[in-house]
Amino acid sequence: MGELGEGLSGGKNKRIFIAKALYRRPGMLFVDETT
């Protein structure tokens, strides 16, 4: 896995992004696309 998430599938990359967002600001998460 690279610095910007290279080598991950789209779904895994999205889950990691959401997890990081929840960790940084647990009270505020905006998702523009649901799957």
Automatic annotation (TrEMBL):
<dbReference type="InterPro" id="IPR027417">
    <property type="entry name" value="P-loop_NTPase"/>
</dbReference>
<keyword id="KW-0547">Nucleotide-binding</keyword>
<dbReference type="InterPro" id="IPR003439">
    <property type="entry name" value="ABC_transporter-like_ATP-bd"/>
</dbReference>
<dbReference type="GO" id="GO:0005524">
    <property type="term" value="F:ATP binding"/>
</dbReference>
<keyword id="KW-0067">ATP-binding</keyword>
<protein>
    <submittedName>
        <fullName>ATP-binding cassette domain-containing protein</fullName>
    </submittedName>
</protein>
<feature type="domain" description="ABC transporter">
    <location>
        <begin position="5"/>
        <end position="35"/>
    </location>
</feature>
<dbReference type="Pfam" id="PF00005">
    <property type="entry name" value="ABC_tran"/>
</dbReference>
<dbReference type="GO" id="GO:0016887">
    <property type="term" value="F:ATP hydrolysis activity"/>
</dbReference>
